Amino acid sequence: MACDRQTRAVQIDETARVPARAVIIATGAGVPQAGASRTSLSSKARASITPRTPMEAQLCGGEEVVVIGGGNSAGQAAVFLAADGQATCISSSAAQGLADTMSRYLVRRIEDNPAIRAAHAARSSSPLEGDGHLERVGWRDNRNGRVETHDIRHVFMMAGAVPNTGWLERCVALDDKGFIKTGPDLSQDDLAAAGWPLTRPPYLLETSHPGVFAVGDVRGGNIKRVASAVGEGSIAIAFVHQVLHQ
After folding, report:
1. Least confident of 26-35, 118-127, 128-137, 200-209
2. Domain stop point among 124, 157, 190
């Protein structure tokens, strides 16, 4: 993306360059690639365990599944999957268990559900194995050093996300995790470093570059829900109209 102060343009490929008076960035966030590279699966097998959402629970056919992650998204996925009678395991790297990283109400629901097996403070040890498809999952419990391996064919990756902002090449201010900072989250130092040229402050979803907005999972502070992303898109469109009339 070209981000000089006078013009805005998005580079589509090596040749196409699209100028614009306003831009809305909605590139989302993806699963960390480093985790995938640590598996012992072939590329074909790894493709068969591409991170899924709880809405795909019916594809598991009532078999045992593993939810990898210790945050609220992982907890919600585990509760959802366990509702179909599937034995579910939470693998968390939190030192003191799920309470470190998950809302209390979710921790209670997991602890009270006999279909959910929580492996607290666990780290993967030769975590994903299989020939052509996932067959086994293993982990090590850091509290006692015990290694467990289970015949499991379904894994839901809920271990965080990486924002798709590398292509911006420092065009807009990012937070320490690489998400785009917008509106009131932009400090005076952010605006000064970006050379904010206007007397007005950035609009609610506007980045440190005037006329460039960010919505959805790519934006810092987004609550990572489809409904909120759709709402942010509608709000951003309203602000774009204001920018175009200025």
Report:
1. 118-127
2. 157
Q: Is the pLDDT of residue 91 over 90?
A: no
Instruction: Tell me if 8 sits within 8 A of 212, measured CB to CB.
Output: yes
Nearest to 78 by CA among 47, 105, 113: 113
Question: Do residues 70 and 137 both lie within one domain?
Answer: yes
CA separation (Å) from 112 to 102, 104, 116, 137, 181?
A: 15, 12, 8, 24, 39
Beta 136-141 vs 147-150: how paired, if at all?
Answer: antiparallel
Q: Where in the sequence is the domain holding 214, given as residue range(s)?
A: 9-29+162-244
Give which of 204, 165, 234 is closest to 25, Cα–Cα.
165
pLDDT digits (tens, 9 = 90+) for 118-149: 876 565 555 678 888 888 888 877 777 788 88
Count how many Cα atoms sit within 13 Å of the Cα of residue 112 in the half-sphere of its side chain: 6
- Count Cα atoms within 13 angstroms, Cβ side, for 231: 8
Domain CATH code at residue 53: 3.50.50.60
| 240 contacts 218 by C-beta, under 8 angstroms | no
Are 98 and 192 in a shared domain? no
Q: Which helix (H) or strand (E) holds 30?
A: strand 29-30
Say which residues have a Cβ less than 8 Å from residue 16's Cβ, sequence separation at least 6: none
* Alpha-carbon span 194 to 170, nearest angstrom: 9
Confidence (pTM): 0.62
Mean pLDDT of all residues in 36-51: 42
